[in-house]
Amino acid sequence: MPLASEDTVDIKIATPLPSSVLMTLSSLVDAAYPGSVWVGNEDRFTNQVIFRVNNATRRDVSTEDAAALRVEPGDEDVDVLALGPDGFVSVLTPLEVAANLLPAIKAEFEKFPDAENYLEMPIHDPSDGNRYLLTFCRSKQQTPHELRMKAEKDLADARGRIHREYAAAAWGVRTAPRPENAPDTFTAGVNAVLDVLRGLSRPVVGDDND
């Protein structure tokens, strides 16, 4: 996930919104702030889409150019709840579709009682050769996206605790009484060890492969 900095600003838009409206907004934001990105919504109690923009890239967009970016609404519109990195999309299921799917979902979970949270059903389309994956989830607040967000937070918290523990240990070594008649290399050796500890405890930030 791209990290916020002094030059970046998050534009937060409440959802749900029709996909045509959201695509129009996305095009407008990208036109005004080239290089803008979607970022994940970490506030699980608020439905919103977040665009992270860089003020340094801001440029004016003419009325004519803005009008040309409008995506016309159509029958294929869906109500979007969330967008995020790695192609994450969350949409509202139409009531009639949900009513038809619910019995099938419950029946599948009854067939596989050991599946406590998820069922995945691969689907192959022989007409174009594409493979799709249908995932059923019945655990509250445990969708794959929510679990990933929690795992990333837990990892950051763990790294913070390790860093504090190393810092406390380093301070203890640095302030410990120096042994009598210790060679002149004692202080240099302690500092070298502390440098290694600091390097080990420094969290990795901004690695998109994590």
Task: Provide a descriptive summary of the structure in words.
This protein is of the alpha+beta class and about 210 residues long. It has three domains: about 10-90, no CATH class; about 95-135, no CATH class; about 145-200, no CATH class. Helices cover about 40% and strands about 20% of the residues. The strands form three sheets. It has a three-stranded antiparallel sheet with strand order 1-4-3, with helices on one face. A hairpin with a 5-residue loop joins strand 5 and strand 6. Helix 4 runs antiparallel to helix 5 (about 185-200). The longest helix is centred in the last third of the chain and has 32 residues, at about 145-175. The termini are close together. Mean pLDDT is about 80; it is low at about 205-210.
Brief overview, please?
This protein has helices spanning 19-32, 63-68, 95-111, 144-175, 185-201; strands at 8-14, 17-18, 37-39, 48-54, 79-83, 89-91, 118-124, 131-137.
Total number of strands = 8
Order of helices and strands: EEHEEHEEHEEHH
Radius of gyration: 25 Å
Alpha-beta content class: alpha+beta
Largest sheet composition? 3 strands, antiparallel
Percent in helix:
40-55%
**Mean pLDDT rating:** 78
Q: Tell me the strand order in the biggest sheet.
A: 1-4-3
Tell me, briefly, the overall form: flat
Separation of termini? 9 Å
Strand content: 15-25%
